[in-house]
Amino acid sequence: MDGTVAPQRRAKNLVRRLLAAGLALFVVAFLVAPPAQALALPTPNAFVTNLDLECFKTTPYQPPATTLKLRHLNPVLANQPNLQVTLGQREQLCVPVAKNNVIPPPGVLDFIRFVDLSCYRVTGPSLNLNLALRHLNPVLQNVPGIGVVLNVPQHLCVPVSKNGVVPAPDVVRLISHIDLLCYAHTPNPAMNVGLVLTQLNPVLTNQIPPSDARVTAARQLCVPVQKSGDDIPADVMNIVRWVDLEKFDITASTITPVSLTLKHLNPVLANLPAENAMVTGAVQLAVPVSKNGMIPPN
Known about the structure:
Blueprint: H1 2-32, H2 44-49, E1 53-61, E2 67-72, E3 83-86, E4 90-99, H3 106-112, E5 117-121, E6 129-135, E7 146-162, H4 169-175, E8 179-186, E9 190-199, E10 211-227, H5 234-240, E11 245-252, E12 258-264, E13 275-291
Antiparallel strand pairs: 1-4, 1-13, 2-3, 2-10, 4-5, 4-9, 5-7, 6-7, 6-13, 7-8, 7-12, 8-10, 9-10, 10-11, 11-13, 12-13
C-alpha cells in the first residue's frame, strides 16, 4: 500500500513544482517585458495635410451653460485679441475620411482616424481680416486657392469620443487638444469637384459606406484655438497650431441615420455629460489649407 502511495505523492509534488516554476517564469516575463512602444507624433505637415473631415448634421442638442475664453494659436492670427464664447446648440459632427481612396500613411492614420469634432453654435466679434488660402492635401493640389475676408465666428468644434471607443493615451494626448473656431467668410466660391469619401474611424467604417460627394461653395474657415485652462504640451502645440481647415458645402449620398453617444475628450470640457447624437446627412467637407503662405513645418 505504502509503496503505491509514495510514487503518487512524488508525481503530484513534481507536477506542483513544475506548475509553480512555470507560473514564476510567466510572472518574471510579464514584469520584465518592455512596455508597448509609444506612438511617435507625426510632423505638423504630415498630420495637417492628411486631415479631412466629413461633417454630418446631427439631431439638435443644447449642452449645459458653458462659457469659454479662447485665444488664437496659428501664427497668422496670433495677434488677434482673445475672445469669450458660450456653447450653443450642437449642429454637426465632423469625422475623418479619406478622399478618392488616398489613405493617410500608417504613422499618421493612427492619429487622424480618431479626430472626431462636435461642433456647437457660437457668436463673437468679426475679424474683418483678409486671407489667402491654399490647399494642402495632395488630392486637391491642383484646385486653385481662394482669397477670403473672415467675418464672425459661427461654430466651435471640439474633440469627442464615440460610443465609448477611446483611443490609446498617445493618441488622446494629441487629438484632445484640437479645438477649432469656425469663421464665416466672403466670398464663397464653389470648388465644383467630385470626390469619393471613405470613413476612417473604426466606429463608422461599417456603418457609413464610401460615398460620392460633390464639393460646392467654400463656407467657413476653421482655425485652431486654445481654451483657458487647457495645458497643451509643447510638442502637441507644435502640431495643433497649424490645423486650419476650410469647410466646403457638399452634396452627398443619403445614409441610414447612425445613433452615437459622444463624450468630450478635452480636459476643460471633460465634466460635461455624455451626449446622444443621431447622425443624418453629410453637409460639409473640411479640408486642410494654409493661410497667407504659412505652411505647417516638416
